[in-house]
Each structure stands twice: as structure tokens, then as C-alpha cells.
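Please predict the structure of the following assembly.
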Amino acid sequence: MTNAREIAVDYLARVEGEGSLRATVVDGALQDVEFSIFEPPRFFEAFLRGRRIEEAPDITARICGICPVAYQMSAVHAMEDALGIAVDGALRDLRRLLYCGEWIESHALHIYLLHAPDFLGYESAVHMAVDHRGLVEQGLRLKKAGNRIVHVLGGREIHPINVRVGGFYRLPTREELSALQPELEWALEAAVATVDQVASFDYPDVERDFEFVALVHPEEYPFNEGRIVSSAGLDIDVSAFNGHFVEEHVARSNALHSRLRDRGPYHVGPLARYALNHERLRQTAAAAAAAAGLGPECRNPFRSIVVRAVEVIQAVEEALEIIARYEPPGEASVPYERREGEGHAATEAPRGLLYHRYRMDDGGRITDAQIVPPTAQNQRTIEDDLRVVLAGNLDLADLELQWLLEQTIRNYDPCISCATHFLRLDLDRGAST
Amino acid sequence: MKTVVVGLGNRMRGDDGVGPAVIDQLRGRVPPDVHLIENSGDVATLIEAWRGADRALLIDAVIAAEEAGSVHRIDGRLGLPPGWWSASTHLVSLTEAVELSWELHCLPDELTVFAITAATVDRGDCLSPEVGAVVDEVVEWVLADLEEADA
């Protein structure tokens, strides 16, 4: 006699996109787990072919409403790699400042509206707001502080339009940036309080043997540049990405799944960045991480919310420093001449490493494009987490188990709108036969 | 009276772009004190967009079991039809944005939602013929609402 139990989440709330989870349990043992993302097949990679290289930042910004800056940054850096130009000084600072804005708004949205309800026992931020109105308002205000940076530098909050290959179309004035300062000073205090708040949550006791992968830069917590490094010894130039990472089609999903060649799943995102770069956190962020008991690395995916909160501090601190030293450069962008070539870039999107590769002809037309988003890279690791959590909690009732599994997926702040919306969960404990 | 008109949706997801398309057509045709806002679905930004407003008009695509291009005018404060926004391409649904704004005491006194039934929200930067054909009608409906309120 076999007792089969199938668990399937058909639509997952509080993730940015669509996906489904299907798990099968037979005779009390976990047989299979499938986490699927409904990704329209690589529309943007095809859409970019034949377009002018100057169009790529605005087109790729449309891939995601939450992390458009990440797509723009990886796109322009890859173009600049192919064109042989470097963007430095105040222009480089402004790009980091723009990225600070995106990290603040994206992390604040996830921490307060999407993930905190899991830990505080609420179905959603709407239900949480009934008892914790101040907490939700704090999150919205933090998010707005980040959005404001993106608006000033990017021309608008969503899908910014001021980023170009070589720099920007228009430079902000000192006054425009200085006007951001008072709210960011409030945001720094709020971000420190956020770490205290989330560090006090109760966390499931899970330790995972991840191979962390992130950009590493000798002098800074990574945004725009660095080498691709892993906790298992990988240390490569970004241009070698395809030599070490493989993207594969999986029959049940139209999102590509990534793995390290000859090794398997890996983990990108806040936990990976922190493990490989915590020594380069700024003072207040480092102090908050220590006070939260994070240590040199954190391998409990449920505590990623603490690391995200630390990264909000990091982004606010850096934003304030950049604004304080800002002197508008002479030119808004670095000039370039179109040429045939191939360029690579990886930057750190809020959800992790985002790799772009482009080929272009001598007329400045894109002939080939490859975009590898962080959620697709984490997909196998999310499945592995689900196996571990499921195997240890099969005695839970269906609703409790569904809650825990959804929370497990939300640990990754999966951006399914760029990897792609909604997760399906079917929960079928089966019947004795 | 502070009025905002919000076109909700992603221009790169087929008929989800109908809200922004209506905003395009309204530019230059509304009184200067009416704020036209395109929002690609970021609920927090949406809440901030109508926070402090007395009146909000919102145009959005919906997935509903009726003919594509059908247009409904709904009083958003009385509740939104269950399920219509569950397949939204937005990060948090419009229903949740309304409910969260209610809890945060920042829901405008008037919230009118123009809901247009989508034929497709697949990737692509074009509206379906059915939805494209009703954009002008929705524009006129919004303008009539604005005129009526100012009269």
C-alpha cells in the first residue's frame, strides 16, 4: 500500500512574478520537488537584436519594474566593455548612487511589504498594517527615499530614462543631490532600526551548504564591477562567465536554469554578497551586522532579510557619502566610436549577480544578446532549499507547510517578472491505495 | 481638489499597457492641476501617487471572463471584483493597494477605476486590436468624469 501526498502551490503571493511549486511525498518520504517559473522565452534577448546599442539601456530597463537600474547598468557596462571605454570619477559615483537608490527601494519593498508578514504571522502587508501601521509606513517611506534617488538621477522612478552608454544624458546639479540629504539621514536611522527589528524575528533553524557567488571588488562592496568569485574558490573575470556557468532548458519551465559547470547549483544575492564582501561594508552597516549576530557569513536563507536590512544601511551610507563629495564633471558622458565587438558585464542587482553579454557590428547594431538574471541562477538552489525544508517538516499540516514553503521561496525575493508572476502550489497528501 | 489620474500597467506586457496608453492620449487635454501618472505596477509608488489626493481615477487592464475590450467603471472604495486582479502583472495587486491605503488612512475620498478586459498580457509592446479599439472611448470617459467633477 502506498500513501502518496502531492504538494503544489499554484499561485504564490508576495513574490514578484509567476511561478509554481510541485512536490510529491510517497510513504512519508519526499520524492520530488519542482519549482517552476513561467518565463516567456527570452523575449528581450531576441527583441534587442538589430537595435542600436544606444537603445539597450532603455529597452532592458523594461524587463523589471523593481530593478530597472540593474538591467541598465549591466547593459551599459557590457557595451562599454565592447567599445573599450571606461567611465570613472564623478560619473562612476553617480552610477553607484543610482544603484544605491534601487537597492534601498527594492530591499525596503521586500523587507516590509513582502517578507516581514511571514515572520510576524500575517497573511499580507495589508493584514500586518492593521496592527503595525507604523512599521508599514516606515517601509514605504524608506522605499520612497530610494525611489527619490532614482527619480533625480534617472529622470523618473520607474524605468529610468537618463542612463546612456558612456554616462548620463543629463547631470544632476549639486543642489538637486543635496536636496536628497535630509531624507537620507532619516533613512539611515530607519535602516539601523530595521536591522534591530528583523534580527529579533524567530527563524527556522536551517543551515545550507551553499556555494556563494558574487562580484568581489578589492575596495568596495560590489555594485557595478569586480571579479566573479565563489566561496569554493572560483575567481574569474566577468568575460569568462560562459566558461564556468551553464544555462539549461528544463522541460517543465520556460525559464533557463543555471548551474556551475561540473559542480551544480549556486547561490547569488545578499547572502552571497555579504559572505564574500562583508569586510568592505561601511562602518554603520558593519556595526549593525555585528550587533545582529551575523558573523562573517550567514548560511540560513531565512535570515537573508537581516542581510538585506544591512545592505539598506550600506546603500544609504554610500549615497550620503557620494552626495557630500559630488562635484559635477565637465561632461555628462564619455564619447565613443562605434566598432564591431563583444562585451561582457556583471553587476549586483538587489537579488544578485546579473550578467549581460552583447555582440555588436561596426554600425552600432546589436547582433546577439545574452541576459542571465539572478532569479534564474537561484532556481535550482531554491528547489534544494525546498527539499531540505520539506523533508524536515512533513509532519506539519497542509496550510502550515504551504506557508513555510512560500516563505522559503520568498527568502530569495524572486523577481519572477524578470526571470518572469505568481506561484502555483498544489497540496495533495494523496490517498491510501 | 487634488486629482490624480493613474495609468497602471507595463507597456511591454501586451494589453497591460492600456493604462499608460490612455495617459498618453490625455496629455495636453486635462486641466493643469490634474496630475497624470504612469505606474508600471509598483504598489508602494501607487500609494504614494494618490496619498494626499482627494480624487483618483485609475485605468488598468484586468483578466476577466468576458469579451476582450470590455470596459467597466467601478467605484474603487466600494471594493473591487474578486479575482480580476489576481493575474495582474503588477508586483502587488491593485486590490491590495486599495486595502493597504485604507489601513494607512490614505485612500482618496473618490477612487474611480476604469477596468479594461485584456486579450493578452504576454510580452510585447502592442495592444491587441480589441483593447486598442477602446482606448479613445476610455479617454473620453475620463475627460467627462473630470469635467463633471469640475462643473
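Chain A touches chain B at residues 11, 14, 16, 40, 43-44, 62-63, 65-66, 105, 109, 113, 124-126, 129-130, 133, 136-137, 139-140, 143-144, 147, 157-159, 417, 421-422 (CB under 8 Å). The radius of gyration of chain A is 21 Å.
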